[in-house]
Amino acid sequence: MGWVEHAPAGVERGEALERLYREQGARMWRAVLAYAGDPEVARDAVAETFAQALRRGEGIRDPERWVWRAVFRIAAGELAERRRRAPESTVIAYEMEEPARELVAALARLSPKQRAAVVLHHAAGYPLKEVARMLGTTPGAVKVHLLRGRRRLRELLGEGDDG
Amino acid sequence: MADLEERFRSLARTTAPDLWEEIGRRRPGPAPRPPVGPRIGAAVVALVLAVTGIGFAGWTLLPREEKPTEPAATVSNGAIAFASGVGGYHIAAVTLDGAVMDITTPAGDAYDLGPVWSPDGAWIAFLRYRITDRDDGTGDYDLFVANADGSGLVVLGRSALAPTWSPDGTSVAFQGFRRETDHDILVAERDGSGERVLVASPLSDTTPRWSPTGELIAFTSHPVLDRDPGDADIFVVRPDGTGLTRLTGSPGWDFEPVWSPDGSRIAYLSEQWDEREAYVMNADGSGVRRLTDAPSNDIAELSWSPDGTRIAFQVFSGTSWDIYLVSADGTEQVPLVTSPLDEVDPTWSPDGTLVAYSAAGSVQSCRCDNAGTFDVYVVTPDTSSTTRLTVDAGVLGGGLSWRSTPFIAEATSPPRTPSGAEIVGTFEVGDDVRSVAYGDGSVWVAVSNNDGTFGGRILRIDPATHEIQAEIPVEVIPTWDIGGGAMVVHGGSLWVTGAVDRPGNFEDPGGGADAAVIRIDTASNALVQTLEIGGNVGADLTFLGDELWVLLFGDETIDHRMEIVRVDPYSGEALARVPLSAKWGHTIVASEGRLVLYEPGEGAVNVDGSLVTVDPSTREVLRVATPSKYFEGGPVAWRDQVWFAAERGFARFDPVTGEVIEGSAELDPSRFAFCCGFIEAGERGIWFVGFDPRTEGSERRLDLFDPATGTVIELVALGGKGTTPVAMAVAPDAVWILNSEGTLTHVALT
Description:
- The structure holds two protein chains of two kinds.
- Chain A has two domains: 8-93, no CATH class; 95-163, Arc Repressor Mutant, subunit A, CATH 1.10.10.10.
- The radius of gyration of chain A is 17 Å and the shape is globular.
- By secondary structure, chain A is mainly α.
- Chain A is built from seven helices and no strands.
- Chain B is built from two helices and 56 strands.
- By secondary structure, chain B is mainly beta.
- In chain B, strand 54 and strand 55 (734-739) form a beta hairpin.
- Chain B has two domains: 80-402, 6 Propeller (Neuraminidase), CATH 2.120.10; 421-749, Methylamine Dehydrogenase, Chain H.
- The longest helix of chain B has 9 residues, at 4-12.
């Protein structure tokens, strides 16, 4: 019997969450960065999400699902709050490659639902139905948002599409 | 320039901070909120609630005796309305014998979804998702009402969602976005008149549901922003706006109410933290009881059986969406459909003998430009019989709606008889098809590798046998999703433009593309040249005499404009570059010693643009605004004339004087509508794929415009399935239509 079985439940969940963070935290941060366009919002949302997950401990049925769903809600709230305080602050000050920076800038011009769908599918790598679950909607609805979002991105980025 | 996939790869290389220590030190704030509010469409949408085991006053622990409600004597199982992805998202209906009828016609780049039959089945409400530049994510839906056959279309509300009919079918309540801050509940008469605000609280008022008795409308109110205080609760209000009453007050979020058939109870969803379940309460808010023990928190789409004894719902069970039934007292929960497929949108039949749902084999990957894989099924409640009603219908989310009377399709137009053309066949050529050309006795099709590169293969197809004579791997294919072009057979060669992946090219140090042209010798099928010409991706090419001219896309992100480049066809040297004003365009043609193209305006690609003519000898550019706001396709060179398709029909453009001959050939809008944003010229005239506004369906039709007489010949219906055209090539005795589904349709001309 390994040591994990003897660990208190909270400790065990904490270890599991750290593993989850190590496996997915960076990808999550980048996805939220793409969604919010602001590395500080991404940092805050990811940290807050895992802090809340730690506090919830065993109360969460499916930690992976929960953190991915929660992080975008938290990021959306944080983004709305920051826009209330400083509507014009859209500067991205973070070291990243130019194509990625352009992408993030273009993503900011999508509607929130399109942006969330595109980010979760293309940046976070989740299949359609998982995206639908995270956004609390149907795969069909996600499909619409993805379709519009990708076309809009191509327009904004000057790539080939008929529009 | 980096393509979209490369940009996401670039994003994935961005270094993320290590936050674990910060997480350990952090004191978390309030919990995030569940998503509540506008679901797309939603005739009978979901409910319930929260969980966490914390109860509140009024819950009952005693089973309630379920008394079945007698269905109305006139009820029968009519057609099931759904959002069909065949040929563009539109509303269709399928009967139990599998007959599919189109109710609406795909409207350009709009999407129809979320159909809801009126209680008597005489009308249908639905949402149309339209393109706007609004950034709120919710203002993209308009609410329409039409007769059951799709005629008599009326706009009921702009920026509207979640329609619900009054039981007498005279009014529709919906969720509207009127104050630019939050949603309100509105009501309008069926004919679009008398819109009034029913509820306009400081909260977001969403998902109205008219009670079967007509006396009340239930809805959800929730905070506008996640960080606002409060949670979601269910309220009722009378249709005249009086009697606003709060029904729920749990510590969780209570939302998406659904009335029982007799109007005595309301089922709903309730969620706190990550746990969501379905609940039921009496219509006055008393007697709250948890109904479900869902295998996950993803539970939605509640549908009462007509006798009120059971509720169907969808739930994610770990690997896929399944459908369950639960008794209306919560005492028995059984799986109804739990296959490896995703089954969603359960909807009871009017007579209670069946449950309809939509199911897909897989939505793991998204080819979003095409129809999806969902189809409509029905299952008996005892699971003894399951029937698939549609095949490859591409059902879009937003719910199914089951008509309570038999559907009688009215013939609104006589059958169309093909005249001078017939479809020889439609056959598969590849997944991600880009363009088709005809020349040197063969049909040429470009198919993308669909692997994030610009590469693919060129198929050479025998027009008589449809056999693939050659498959030529290339690293350059056209980049268009729709519109084709970028391939020309000229001088014994097939010329193709697109781009090559080249790190460091086109101001893109992380990798990207350079415009390129390849040449394939049609005698040997050999790829003989790859001309890298610099600049952004090639959009189209044309020959002016023996001069090869290539139209290159611009790049908005670095403010690089479109340009035309004359390329030495042997060395690839750029002999001349003519800068343009727009960021991107589609088609370039040569006529009367000029190069002609369309430049879109700053907004959408087909709006407020200009026709541009370039004198290649002087590089002089002449730009003329299009006479109509919308541009439908072209330009094309027919004989020695240049034509394009505009809002009202075809117009001729004089490339020397820059004069648009307005109203050259106006089309009767009641008979003709352009389909897909491209037209092609052949010896017989200008070919276009359109649809007939007089017909019920969305079926495409191939038509021929004769510029000599200004008349249009309706040629041949292209069929209802597999016909989302992306490109067309005209041969002397045939037209070849490439479809986004990866098929090629051969239309023979007689």
